[in-house]
Design goal:
The complex is a heterodimer. Chain A is built from three helices and seven strands. Chain A is of the alpha/beta class. The radius of gyration of chain A is 18 Å and the shape is globular. Chain B folds into two domains: 3-53, no CATH class; 64-413, Cytochrome-c3 Hydrogenase, chain B (Orthogonal Bundle). The mean pLDDT of chain B is 90. The chains are: A alpha/beta, B mainly alpha.
Chain lengths: 169, 414
Amino acid sequence: MALTNEILKQKLSDKFGEQLTEWDEQYGLLTLRMPAEANLKVIQHLYDAEGFQFLTDLTAVHYPERTGEELCVVYHLHNLVENIRLRLKVYVPVEKPDVYTATKIFSGANWMERETYDNLGINFVGHPNLTRILNVDEMDYFPLRKEYQMEDPTRLDKDDEMFGRGGSI
Amino acid sequence: MSEQTQHHIQLAEESLAKQSTTLNLGPTHPATHGVFQNIMEIDGERVLSTEPTIGYIHRAFEKIAERRPYYQVTPLTDRLNYCSAPINNMGWHMTIEKLLGIKTPKRVDYMRVIIMELARIADHLICNSVVAVDTGALTGFTYVFQWRELIYEIYEEVCGSRLTTNIGRVGGFERNFTQVAWEKINKFMEGFPKVMREFEALLNRNRIFMERCIGAGPISAERALNYSFTGPNLRAAGVDYDVRVAQPYSSYEDFDFKIPVGTTGDVYDRYMVRNDEIWESYKIIEQALAKIAKLEQEDPTQKDVFYAPESDHYHLPPKEDVYTKMEALIFHFKMVMGEIDVLPGEVYHGVEGANGEVGYYLISDGGRTPYRLHFRRPCFIYYQAYPEIVSGGLLSDAIITLSSLNVIAGELDA
């Protein structure tokens, strides 16, 4: 029987129970949130038991207004046999952005995690070489975090009120 | 005077005891076709290990995109894989269409397919002819580039520019294809097979070329999957994953085409997979032209369909209307000033780029710009396997491996 979002959701809830939350299915892509300390358990289970052996994408998002869980690491996994995708999310606080590395499961996660570290400062615990990859080594901040504005904030002619997202960000 | 004071050259510790040579290849080396630096440890002609450094043309597109209205992000996508910019443009437009729930008419889908497959042919022509150049055969390169030139003329006729195309709009195209564009496409369809066959005759069964490529830079299917390879490089290793078939977009399900696969994932397999894909793309364009002709024959009004009617709020009106009609002017102004909000949502859309799955992970918070936009760039992902692929091989094999992987600096760095 073909694997569908409903079956997968049922299987994962049976296995992990309350640990997996915030189920969503926007645009047909099953999305779930897993706790930061159990991320490798879930990914390894998906790899071994459900055939999600392809890491499509790994990135992170910064939500400054979500206090205590500002940074969100997003995994896109793909089961190539059943042709079904899955999105996994892990939320971590910006003060202590520790997430276990997926490099032991996916070799391809190596540079994706380095890029995510470089841009958003996620600390991938256990990564073999967690250094900056795209930006210069001397950079001492994480540019894709929302506190860094694109434009020079002192320029009055580029006021956000007129050009953009009203004020703050 | 002692020997010590005569020589002031400071050598690194252990450098005299070391038996291997450190070779700095790049960042700007004529053999690497782009800005790639590799610090290699070589033993004679053998590569022991290599350490790639990337980021020389990092332009922070993901950050820039957070301040740009949606249609202004399109020129950023041009500059990812600049050898096949239309695929990136249309992939981005389709992502927004998915977010907004816009369904494009069949004719638009087929027109997009024509342009995307032309782009794929152009990209594969560059890659394959450059592999030939790196193995010492310059003739094929100069020969097929005339036809790449014709593809660029078709882009020019459709959208006005050649390399970084900014082709199309959300919901379709900015204008209908002109008569000249159709004529140029037909000219390409007539003349290209002969040239391609000659290019194949030059290389495919060429003893020198085969000896040079077979067994160079191989990767197994398991390793390729583990490294998240996609596109021709994955298929050369023997995995038949193609987004056009797995998750069809732009009506690819209507077309009849094959997915060529290799077995060993070496330079020759990658070359042959791309070579066969050029023919498959050619077949797809043939079918698309026939399908458009059939649509127009059944319903002559189809001739004027070049964008989805429901995308009106996101589709810049034609320039002549902007100058003469009030509504068009208002819409144009609102769109350019970024007054048009997009629905909130989270969407991932992948298209089969010339090098693999180009993905757009877009989070919209309902404003005029993306809240977060991440590009899945196939080159970035598979270039990390380069040290593993070339270690133990010859230095000259490392060069042709780099060309046959078709690593594009723009896509690598974003």
